[in-house]
Amino acid sequence: MRARLVPLLRAVVIPAAVLLLWEGLSRAGRVSPQILPPPSQVLRRWVAYLLPTEPFDPASGESRLLWLVSGELPRDAFGSLQRVLVGFAIGAGLALPLGLLMGAKEWVHQLFDPLVQVLRPIPPIAYIPLSILWFGLGNPPAYFLISLGAFFPVLMNTIAGVRSVDAIYVRAARNLGAGEGVLFRRVILPAATPYILTGVRVGMGVAFIVVIVAEMIAVNSGLGYRILEAREFLWSDKIIAGMLTIGLAGLGIDLGMNALNRRLLRWHRGIEQGR
Amino acid sequence: MPDPIPSRAAAGAMGTTGGDRMPDAMISARGVRQVFRAGGREVVALDGIDLEIQEGEFVCLLGPSGCGKSTLLNAIAGFVPPSAGSLRAGGRPVTAPGPDRAMVFQEYALFPWMTVERNVAFGLELKGAPRAEIAREVDAWLHKLSLQDFRDRYPKDLSGGMRQRVAIARALAIDSPVLLMDEPFGALDALTRRNLQDELLRVWSELRKTVVFVTHGIEESIYLADRVVVMTYRPGTVKRIVPITLPRPRDPASAEFNELKKAVAGLVMEEQLRHQEAEAHGATAD
Ligand SMILES: Nc1ncnc2c1ncn2[C@@H]1O[C@H](COP(=O)(O)OP(=O)(O)O)[C@@H](O)[C@H]1O
Ligand SMILES: [Mg+2]
């Protein structure tokens, strides 16, 4: 009992102290609530942002669950998440087969590597002007930017993963009668999965950064758009509430990644030690 | 000596690299030489290997560690083409690996992302065997190798001996005419080893397989083989081929067995001494 309580207390003592100090400073009038609203106010704003804007109307035939998530925050969060997922799927979906080929076939690597090396160092954010020029405003430029952000981490890790596949597995598979296609699908791909998942994780992280920036500039909804909009009205409490939401969404994505890792790498040595 | 033209045409179509036609032998090596370049130095792993293995024969390759046993087996399997000489298996030149020469690797080479069951099923799936047959065969082999309780485990959760048994089951399951086995029982305890040796002999005689079995165990080679090929150390050549005519099942405690053991041990000892001397003179570096 005690053994569990002590670490728990240690874990909350610093955050609690920060919140108390923050609340105290604001209440004492030391900082303007315009600049830094007290945490209690941020919390109230966050709840208002989260809850549905209209009261539930049973006559409308709408389900209660849908009503519960009809607030501004859930809609923003779903919008951002949907952009991340679509953009990521496009970027990773292109990077994976190309990475497998570049890793396995030297001539494919020679063909594509120069272009990759030139494009890779350009931050996806730098594509924003071009993406608006090409795709206008709304989801399309966001998809484009996010897929770019996800593309290179997945590509580079897939190449490294394929190159790290132990030749003994290829030998064993050929010995058992595997042709080229089977070799790719059932040997090289699974053997490279630990690397590929690292790429997926990094790519997801980049995609999440890019979606917020893209929404601030090219889209009229989503979490990124919302905190920029709140600034126009000097709603610092809503800005902070939005930032906390972005943090929670990031945490959610990270937990999802961990679950995916555990599921796909059950066979992998050392996965248990990896927290 | 007649040299019929059709044979040249056929040989060309199969992409042969020269060498005489060797009918009948299941596996034949002629003048096989293997040179590795390691750190700027050349290592002649094999030189002038001439060997013919008949269909249904059980042959052991015996020699000290580093004498080129795995190299020869890898060449027969088609993984590494020899630097010189010719290799034929099943009447055709060896050009690539294939399921007609199932291999049990010294390093097991189990697919770590597949469970025991999936590993054993893999080769059968590649053959396009029907589902029911795959399930039946996998079951049978898991039982024969006492693996039935571990079928859903991943290789990382198995002991060395169990991994080795999975590797054996995987190779036997595809029912290939030739079995290439690289120290397959090395990681097993004595009792399990003897059981598996007997099981292998049963499979071999029942299914008329040709077995090339690499070992550094003198007793093991005499217990199993029709012929023991004793190899020399660096370069690896055939030092002596010792036919074992003892009737099976063989009794390692018998006088005849021990006679043979002494004779073969003498041959191996000579090579081990050469090995040690070579090392003492700094001519080798493994
Ligand atoms: N890929 C390789 N590159 C360089 N040297 C090798 C390679 N494979 C084997 N050798 C060398 O060839 C010799 C024979 O090796 P090997 O066939 O593995 O011996 P054995 O199986 O009899 O223990 C050894 O001296 C080894 O160091
Ligand atoms: Mg070896």
Task: State the gist of this model.
The complex is a heterodimer of chains A (275) and B (286). With 275 residues, chain A is mainly alpha-helical.
Walk me through this protein's architecture.
- The complex is a heterodimer of chains A (275) and B (286).
- Chain A has 275 residues and is mostly helical.
- Chain A folds into 2 domains: 1-31, no CATH class; 35-55 and 62-274, MetI-like (MetI-like fold), CATH 1.10.3720.10.
- Chain A is built from 11 helices and no strands.
- Chain A has helices spanning 2-27, 39-50, 64-68, 72-104, 106-119, 128-135, 139-163, 167-175, 180-217, 223-232, 236-264.
- In chain A, helix 7 packs antiparallel against helix 9.
- Chain A starts with a helix and ends in an 11-residue tail after the last helix.
- Chain B has 286 residues and is of the alpha/beta class.
- Chain B has a domain at 8-54 and 63-96 and 211-285: 3-Layer(aba) Sandwich (Rossmann fold), CATH 3.40.50.
- Chain B has helices at 5-13, 69-77, 116-127, 131-144, 160-173, 190-207, 218-224, 255-280; strands spanning 27-38, 41-53, 58-62, 84-89, 92-93, 101-104, 178-182, 210-215, 227-231, 238-243.
- In chain B, the strands form 2 sheets. In chain B, strands 6-7-8-3-9-10 form a 6-stranded mixed sheet, sandwiched between helices.
- Chain B is globular, with a radius of gyration of 20 Å.
- Residues 1-22 of chain B have low confidence and may be disordered.
- Chains A and B meet through helix 8 and helix 9 of A and strand 6 and helix 3 of B.
- Bound molecules: adenosine-5'-diphosphate and magnesium ion.
